[in-house]
């Protein structure tokens, strides 16, 4: 977008979706002086037949150089924000990130709140941050017979890495697993240590897994919570639109109070 | 666990507590320092939303709805014929721990009817908090109700275990309060507030010097005012709220639109207080606390009630056309904050942008400024909207887009 180089040299970049991968795209773009028309994770997303497509192979040393230079220009806090945006996993955001880093490396005003790239990333930071906050709120744990607490989520963005610390601190004395069923991986916590776990099952069958069975008092607490949830409602003031605005419907199926039936021992969560 | 009895108690005692609108779980900073359960998130977390769109953050219940008082506005008053129930300390502790472990809640908000006398009731509330903190290493959020008339020793102990304490004034003027709640006076509520404020400030100073000084009600105090149950004006209500913020360091004053739960003859026969009035009071409360407005800016003795058709800032702008237009590229922060449609965040972004060059209308849009209101009150390098000094024409224009929304609100009010 920015006329740093002649627009004629612009082309599409394809990369592996990783953060070092994105930084390698920036490195390539600078060494070859050819700006990005788009930055995508899958070649099939490029429909433009007349322009070059450059497949960038992630190169860790190059990525590290970009990272350390960017960090010294922007500071650690700003870098954290950029990585947070990257977890949106959208081509639109990837392009903004590449444009923003280009802006920083060419001495542009990275704090100019009139700039569409600066403000575009600001908007995405808000979106991803909001999804993170919602996941901290809407995760629902279930206690199982083996003493492990489990929860399934399906966040719009890849926010599991962002919520890990919150849950580690809060549920320090519990062994728990939070599974992202859309992305097929989860986080396992035990004694203050976190591990990523991959799921081999197809996304919809993460839970119930064969070895997971709800603890005997689980249905009782689910029922009590539903009783509470019904009792605090003020029906005279019904405003379903407001409810949905705060608590988007896509989260409901993972929230026990919004699910009509109580889970049985055989079919938890 | 006798599930059936517990379910029944929970239904009764959650229902009785729901008219206390405070649900905040923010403003505390308790960490999980002992490897136990939970911590308090500085910004607070809403874990669910009811069908009326209110946030569910805390397990908000009464210990009991048995009450020796007879306050006309209250569903639990002794002359009201309702089902009565009481939790044991153990039951409240169990529910809190088990809901918290499932990530249903941020913590506990425990209130109670006054079942024998103030001290007995307060002692029971304190015991729940103490057991959670000590026996169960619970570090989640605890909000306790201060019972009017309880001893200072008990109130002090409550502050040691709880994150927030609150005592509801409920009726905005003392005269009206004594009419509808003969056993109560404003002074009964103000006295513990004064004591708590003094202690909170004192211990905060101590903490600045000695890191290990105990936490004492780190999320401060709050109160609630019922709106529309008595003829008190918005001027009275906001004046009282302003005083509470200034003198007693309250973190929040909540406004609760009166829902006619009571058939008591001392209460008005009218229907519910319109939601919009409650909403306008909250908007004004924000203007008082964060936007540099005074009560007199918003209301006067001649005009003691808020304009329900317009938000209080827009109404102010229309009453004071001489203060506008505000020049986007030059005005100081205080003046930008007085422009309808511009909030604190937008002001920060505008000031930041001005360091880089001139700010235009299209920039404001990306910053989140509500242009459909702001554009009438701004000038860009000297160019202002033609209607800036015509409040007579602006008023209907600014109301029109809101009217449809207001009509929808009324349907459910």
Please tell me about this protein's structure:
The complex is a heterodimer of chains A (269) and B (413). Chain A has helices spanning 19-32, 60-74, 76-86, 91-105, 116-138, 160-170, 218-231, 240-246; strands spanning 11-14, 36-40, 53-55, 142-143, 148-153, 175-180, 185-190, 193-198. With 269 residues, chain A is an alpha/beta fold. Chain A has two domains: 7-131, no CATH class; 139-258, no CATH class. Chain A has a five-stranded mixed β-sheet, with helices on one face. Chain A has a three-stranded parallel β-sheet with strand order 2-1-3. In chain A, helix 1 (19-32) packs across helix 2 and helix 3 crosses helix 5. The model of chain A is unreliable at 262-269 (pLDDT under 50). Chain B has 413 residues and is α/β, with parallel strands linked by helices. Chain B has two domains: 3-298, Alpha-Beta Barrel (TIM Barrel), CATH 3.20.20; 312-412, no CATH class. Chain B is built from 15 helices and eleven strands. Chain B has helices at residues 3-15, 89-101, 118-134, 152-161, 174-180, 186-209, 234-248, 275-290, 295-298, 312-319, 333-336, 344-354, 361-367, 371-374, 391-412, and strands spanning 48-49, 55-56, 58-62, 107-111, 141-145, 164-166, 221-227, 252-257, 326-327, 378-380, 383-384. Chain B has a six-stranded parallel β-sheet with strand order 3-4-5-6-7-8. In chain B, a hairpin with a 5-residue loop joins strand 1 (48-49) and strand 2. The radius of gyration of chain B is 23 Å and the shape is globular. Chain B starts with a helix and ends with a helix. Classes of the chains: A alpha/beta (269), B alpha/beta (413). At the A-B interface, helix 5, strand 4, helix 6, helix 7 and helix 8 of A face helix 1, strand 1, strand 2, helix 2 and helix 12 of B.
């Amino acid at each position: 977008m920015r006329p740093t180089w002649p627009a004629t040299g612009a082309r599409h970049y394809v990369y592996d979706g990783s953060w070092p991968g994105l930084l390698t795209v920036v490195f390539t773009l600078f060494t070859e002086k050819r700006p990005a028309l788009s930055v995508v994770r899958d070649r099939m997303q490029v429909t433009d037949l007349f322009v070059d497509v450059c497949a960038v192979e992630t190169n860790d040393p190059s990525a590290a150089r970009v990272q350390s230079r960017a960090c010294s220009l922007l500071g650690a806090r700003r870098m954290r924000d950029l990585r947070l945006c990257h977890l949106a996993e959208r081509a639109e955001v990837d392009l903004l990130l590449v444009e923003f880093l280009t802006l920083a490396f060419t001495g542009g005003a990275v704090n100019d709140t009139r700039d569409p790239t600066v403000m575009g990333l600001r908007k995405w930071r808000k979106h991803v941050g909001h999804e993170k906050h919602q996941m901290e709120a809407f995760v629902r744990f279930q206690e199982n017979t083996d003493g492990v607490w489990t929860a399934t989520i399906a966040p719009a963005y890849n926010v599991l890495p962002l919520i890990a610390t919150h849950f580690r601190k809060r549920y320090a004395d519990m062994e728990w697993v939070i599974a992202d069923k859309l992305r097929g991986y989860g986080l396992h916590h035990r004694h203050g240590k976190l591990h990523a776990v991959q799921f081999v099952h197809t996304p919809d069958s993460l839970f119930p897994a064969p070895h997971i069975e709800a603890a005997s008092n689980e249905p009782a607490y689910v029922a009590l919570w539903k009783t509470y949830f019904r009792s605090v409602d003020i029906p005279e003031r019904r405003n379903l639109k407001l409810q949905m605005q705060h608590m988007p419907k896509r989260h409901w199926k993972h929230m026990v109070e919004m699910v009509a039936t109580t889970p049985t021992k055989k079919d938890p969560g | 666990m006798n599930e059936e009895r517990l379910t029944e108690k929970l239904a009764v005692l959650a229902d009785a507590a729901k008219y206390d609108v405070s649900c905040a779980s923010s403003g505390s900073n308790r960490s999980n320092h002992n490897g136990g359960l939970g911590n308090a998130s500085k910004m607070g977390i809403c874990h669910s939303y009811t069908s009326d769109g209110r946030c569910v953050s805390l397990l908000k219940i009464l210990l009991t709805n048995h009450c020796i008082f007879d306050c006309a506005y209250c569903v639990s008053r002794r002359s009201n014929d309702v089902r009565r129930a009481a939790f044991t300390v153990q039951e409240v502790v169990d529910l809190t721990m088990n809901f918290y472990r499932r990530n249903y809640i941020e913590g506990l908000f425990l209130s109670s009817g006054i079942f024998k006398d103030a001290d007995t009731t307060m002692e029971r509330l304190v015991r729940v908090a103490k057991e959670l903190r000590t026996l169960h290493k619970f570090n989640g959020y605890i909000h306790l109700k201060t019972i009017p008339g309880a001893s200072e020793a008990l109130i002090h102990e409550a502050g040691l275990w709880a994150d927030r304490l609150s005592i509801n004034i409920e009726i905005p003027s003392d005269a009206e309060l004594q009419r509808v709640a003969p056993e109560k006076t404003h002074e009964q509520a103000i006295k513990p507030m004064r004591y708590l404020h003094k202690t909170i400030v004192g211990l905060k100073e101590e903490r600045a010097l000695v890191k290990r000084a105990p936490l004492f009600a780190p999320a401060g105090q709050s109160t609630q005012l019922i709106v529309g149950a008595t003829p008190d004006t918005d001027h009275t209500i906001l004046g009282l709220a302003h005083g509470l913020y200034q003198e007693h360091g309250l973190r929040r004053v909540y406004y609760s639109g009166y829902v006619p739960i009571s058939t008591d003859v001392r209460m008005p026969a009218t229907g519910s207080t319109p939601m919009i009035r409650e909403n306008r009071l909250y908007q004004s409360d924000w203007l008082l606390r964060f936007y540099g407005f005074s009560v007199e800016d918003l209301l006067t003795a001649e005009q003691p009630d808020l304009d329900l058709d317009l938000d209080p800032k827009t109404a102010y702008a229309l009453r004071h056309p001489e203060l506008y237009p505000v020049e986007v590229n030059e005005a100081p922060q205080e003046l930008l904050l007085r422009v309808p449609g511009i909030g604190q965040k937008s002001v920060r972004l505008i000031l930041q942008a001005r360091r880089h060059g001139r700010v235009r209308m299209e920039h404001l849009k990306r910053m989140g400024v509500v242009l459909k209101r702001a554009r009438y009150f701004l000038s860009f390098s000297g160019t202002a909207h033609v209607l800036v000094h015509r409040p007579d024409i602006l008023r209907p224009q600014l109301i029109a887009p809101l009217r449809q929304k207001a009509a929808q609100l009324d349907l459910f009010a």
